[in-house]
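ok here's N-acetyltransferase domain-containing protein:
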Amino acid sequence: MYEEICKLILCEQGHDASFIGVALDSYMEKLMSNAEFFLHLDKGLCRGFIAYYCNDETTLTAYVTLILVALESRRSGLGRLLINSVIEQARSRGFRACRLEVNSNNLAAQAFYGKLGFYSIDNRAGKILMESKL
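and the structure:
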């Protein structure tokens, strides 16, 4: 799983050098030790994944930290499937909300999340915090 996720991230960074914005090794170490994943494989290749945290028993808020769909699989419904998987997982654990951050200049992502029921709750440092009630 680790290798497949790294390959997809590196491919995306080839299109957008600022995609991760930090050293990939340390970022992946943090994700692999703390996050949960849903991964979509097709013919042995990772077509998309979502990394999320669903462990805050105090606020009962899940947090999507990274979602990525391969360029050739975009607009196929895979992103929606991944987000909905997290939402269903969080609901099944009794969580009440799901949050994520999106770059304020990424209007396409904001529109995508808006269609899935997310709305803006804060704007800070060039990022918009969005939430969906579960």
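+1. The beta strands are 36-42, 45-53, 61-69, 97-103, 119-124, 127-133.
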